[in-house]
UniProtKB/TrEMBL annotation, chain A:
Pfam families: Usp (PF00582). Residues 1-137 form the UspA domain. It comes from Albidovulum marisflavi. It comes from the Bacteria. This is Universal stress protein. InterPro entries: Rossmann-like_a/b/a_fold, UspA.
Automatic annotation (TrEMBL), chain B:
Keywords: Cell membrane, Membrane, Transmembrane, Transmembrane helix, Transport. InterPro entries: BCCT_transptr (IPR000060). Belongs to the BCCT transporter (TC 2.A.15) family. Pfam families: BCCT. This is BCCT family transporter. It comes from Albidovulum marisflavi. It is found in: Cell membrane. PANTHER family: HIGH-AFFINITY CHOLINE TRANSPORT PROTEIN, HIGH-AFFINITY CHOLINE TRANSPORT PROTEIN-RELATED. It is a multi-pass membrane protein. The keyword ATP-binding does not apply.
């Protein structure tokens, strides 16, 4: 049913993603699908790396570890964006096509009052993405 | 089991040898948390200290307005008259240093690594450079300065062509006209852009090539080493936040007064505090929208729109005014600038102190106090350019555009003053009585479709403020987040709103002038800091692959 699952990850907050990572791994095994872990970062140095290459290497390492842990095919894809704070939604929507995903499994927060001001990233992706989006509450 | 990894537009690095090896982790001093439902991620103590100091200074200016006005009102002219040689000399060093980098072998170093590609097209890049750098000043001074220098300030002792009784002295006209343009272009050409280029290049180099966080302190790593992560660095960053926020807030306050004067002039809208507060609110709201849409969706789009409208206005004035004369002015202005730049930049033995201290030293202090903000913004959008391309594009091309702008706006205004001195509105507002905020509208009055062009002028003034305000908020947010460019959105909202609120409080309570004088006074320590930056740039470039 699904062959290529995209999982957006924030390497700083992996503790908030354990459920979505597990769900993605279970689905990958069920459908023998590949899982592509997608990160979005700016080109400026950050706590994840001095250069984009370092961030990409870290994401790749995470993808390998997840693949080894759960026994599925894993890949990673880092999107470099000028302003991730405001352009994350668009970057993720574009990434669906870039990685050729047919399902997105994504962690999302429990709704709160800020959702009336800024829609959640998961909700926005589900609204605009051409593929199925599974949102997993943290 | 890993099948494939990919990165978008990221080349394989040439090697990590040029990254500065530091134990400092970006964000290690940050405090992350929630205020109610809103997340935050701020640097401790830069965020708190700069925020509290700003509030304290606003209270000081409001509680003791006369004392604040006396202190800072005295401080600024004292600095520009005592340290005029320092400002002029340092600015000359910056220009020479930039020109040297163009021809030096380090010109081929690429910001972001050898294989990096530019993030923005030339158009988008130039638009953002201009909008952040000096767009608003071109609107305000484009008419005022050439006329003022031609008729009143007498740079290098070139006599005015207008006699005390208002008649024209024909034999003085040619030299004064050329000097008016040259003396203006001097303030808007190579020197200010060299100041911005130094700061921007230092930050881009130490961020994109050396892997340090995008904050002002990073440029001083070669000077202070690991100490920049301590209080030395905190002080540098806090000063930068301080200069940026007060620079923006006080300009916003004055800008609202100027826009209001324009609205009164064109539409008869009352010129009072209520309208000005409303204008600041509107500008802040639009800037907020722009900040929320981000760098590409908001700031860049608005900058491009602004550039397009400004270009249209420029073309209109060029065609509606005496086109042949203006084009001749452009050529002669450029020639005069080339001839006079050396004597105008000479810091010693000058007798034209009114011009040299009152204008030039003041301008240099002003540009330098703005340089942390503009330089950091330019750095952020300049990844992928070589040092040579960067300097040429940040130094030479904006200078040429400024020459064109000043030649067109100043040329038309000078033409109006000299050809019809009795009924020239420009003469009335610049020479007879000094009402600088109306000088642009006075010049447009002498051309066809004055109402339409004046409205466009007001819109441009307002949108240029928006583009300064939104890029300023991004810069302040990044510095106070310890160099993180992806801090939570509510922080940007906070800084943008805070800046508008400070502007309104100072406008209503008084103190705009005092605090603006204080901001300009920060130009003195920053001048020394910029000289250190030149050395840091050289040190940084020496270890880069060419």
């Amino acid at each position: 049913m699904f062959s290529n699952i995209m999982v957006p990850v924030d390497l700083r907050h992996l503790e908030r993603m354990s459920k979505s990572l597990q769900a993605a791994a279970d689905l990958a095994r069920l459908y023998s699908a590949r899982v592509c872990y997608v990160g979005v970062s700016s080109a400026e140095p950050s706590d994840l790396g001095h250069r984009p290459e370092e961030v990409a290497a870290r994401l790749s390492g995470f993808a390998k570890a997840e693949a080894a842990k759960h026994g599925h095919q894993g890949a990673s894809h880092l999107v470099i964006n000028h302003d991730p704070t405001t352009e994350l939604d668009k970057a993720l929507n574009d990434a669906v096509e870039e990685v050729g995903a047919d399902l997105v499994v994504m962690a999302t927060h429990i709704p709160n009052v800020t959702d009336y001001i800024w829609a959640s990233h998961g909700g926005t992706l589900a609204l605009h993405s051409p593929v199925s989006v599974m949102l997993v509450r943290g | 089991m890993n099948e494939q990894d990919s990165t978008q537009g990221i080349p394989i690095p040439e090697g990590a040898a040029d990254i500065i090896d530091t134990d400092y982790m970006i964000g290690q001093d940050n405090i992350e948390g929630q205020v109610g439902p809103f997340g935050f991620d701020v640097h401790n103590p830069v965020f708190l200290v700069s925020g509290l100091t700003i509030v304290a200074f606003v209270f000081y200016a409001l509680a003791l307005p006369e004392q604040a006005s006396d202190v800072f009102g005295w401080l600024r002219p004292w600095l520009t008259s005592t340290f005029d040689w320092f400002f002029l000399g340092a600015a000359n060093i910056f220009v020479v240093f930039c020109l040297f980098l163009i021809v030096s072998p380090w010109g081929s170093v690429r910001l972001g690594g050898k294989e990096a590609t530019p993030d923005y097209s030339y158009i988008g890049w130039f638009a953002m450079l201009f909008a952040a750098g000096m767009g608003i000043g071109l609107m305000f001074f484009g008419v005022l300065e050439p006329v003022y220098h031609m008729a009143i300030s007498e740079p290098l002792g070139v006599p005015s062509p207008i006699a005390e009784d208002g008649t024209i002295i024909p034999e003085n006209v040619e030299a004064a006209k050329n000097m008016g343009l040259a003396a203006t272009i001097y303030h808007w050409g190579l020197h200010p852009w060299a100041i911005y280029a130094i700061v921007a290049l230092a930050l881009a180099l130490f961020t994109f090539n050396k892997g340090l966080p995008l904050t002002i302190r990073s440029a001083f790593y070669p000077v202070f080493g690991e100490a920049i992560w301590g209080w030395v660095g905190h002080v540098i960053d806090i000063l930068a936040v301080f200069a940026t926020l007060f620079g923006l807030a006080t300009s916003l306050g004055f800008g609202a007064q100027q826009a209001n004067a324009g609205l009164e002039h064109v539409f008869g809208i009352p010129n009072n505090i209520t309208v000005q507060v409303l204008l600041i609110t509107v500008i802040t709201a639009v800037a907020l929208g722009s900040v929320l849409r981000g760098l590409d969706g908001g700031v860049k789009v608005l900058s491009e729109i602004n550039m397009a409208i400004a270009a249209l206005l420029l073309v209109f004035v060029l065609l509606a005014g005496p086109t042949a004369t203006i084009l001749a002015d452009f050529v002669s202005g450029l020639g005069a600038y080339a001839t006079e730049i050396a004597p105008l930049s000479n810091p010693f033995g000058r007798e034209d102190t009114g011009y040299m201290q009152g204008w030039t030293a003041f301008y240099w202090a002003w540009w330098i106090s703005w340089s942390p903000f503009v330089g950091m913004f330019i750095a952020r959008v300049s990844r992928g350019r070589t040092v040579r391309e960067f300097i040429i594009c940040v130094l030479l091309i904006p200078s040429l555009v400024c020459v064109l702008w000043m030649a067109v706006f100043g040329g038309v205004a000078i033409d109006q003053v000299l050809n019809s001195p009795t009924d020239s509105a420009v003469k009335a507002y610049v020479i007879d009585s000094y009402v600088p905020e109306l000088s642009l509208f006075a010049m447009l009055e002498g051309l066809p479709l004055a109402t339409i062009t004046s409205v466009i002028g007001i819109v441009l003034v307002i949108v240029f403020f928006v583009t300064s305000s939104d890029s300023g908020s991004l810069v302040i947010d990044t510095i106070t987040a310890g160099g993180k460019v992806d801090a939570p959105l509510p922080q940007r909202v906070f800084w943008c709103t805070f800046e508008g609120a400070v502007a309104i409080v100072l406008l209503v309570g008084g103190g705009l002038g005092a605090l603006q004088a204080m901001v300009i006074s920060t130009g003195l320590p920053f001048t020394a800091v910029l000289l250190l930056m030149c050395w840091a740039i050289l040190k940084g470039l020496m270890t880069e692959a060419r």
